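ZP: hey, is the thymidine-5'-triphosphate complex queued? I don't see it on the tracker
AM: it wasn't, my bad. submitting now with these inputs:
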Amino acid sequence: MLDPRTQIYLASNSPRRAELLTQIGVRFARLSLETDERRLADESPEDYVLRIAVEKGRAGRDRLSRGDLLPVLAADTAVVLGDSVLGKPRDSADARAMLAELSGRTHRVLTAVALMTPDQERTALSESRVHFREIDEEEARRYWATGEPADKAGGYGIQGYGALFVANLEGSYSGVMGLPLFETGRLLLEAGIASMAR
Ligand SMILES: Cc1cn([C@H]2C[C@H](O)[C@@H](COP(=O)(O)OP(=O)(O)OP(=O)(O)O)O2)c(=O)[nH]c1=O
């Protein structure tokens, strides 16, 4: 049974998104999702993450029973290097190739947030720039063995061992981790949902 104090649904399987939403004191229930995350030909990285976040939000809303009017929040994160968008690594070789590409360079992390209310779809986009120090093959191998890269866009987690690679971050730490809290709090407020619940 749904706790009557629940404010929104979080349409996400990501434990990080749940952790971040808890951080700002929003009372939520989770909806799990299966989403096709393929990028369309000629789709910009910005359009791509926004489209996927909206699709996740709509899929979540479609799962609600009739008459359930609680808003649905969803997000999508991509690591962008030049023209390429790095998703989650397929395997060890893919993950090590991603780290080799990111090594010693600056990449962007885009996270789109979508908030679906019965009468409106609101979106926000967070962009961060992350500079990695150089990472050698041996370290990339050890990093894969920790299990951390497997389920993360770009094959790293800034909130974990991945912090060791981040020489500089310009933007939103929570956005890189998967849910930009400033933008999320603003969207929630626009929809009349208060954070900082105790
Ligand atoms: C870059 C980076 C990504 N990530 C994670 C956040 C997201 O969970 C994941 C990006 O994949 P997403 O497809 O955005 O999300 P997801 O499939 O994990 O979850 P959902 O059910 O909401 O679709 O990478 C980190 O945890 N730390 C990081 O530093």
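AM: back. Residues 12-14, 16-17, 33, 35, 37, 56, 75-77, 79, 88, 109, 151-154, 156-159, 162, 176-178 surround thymidine-5'-triphosphate (CB under 6 Å).
ZP: great, adding it to the tracker
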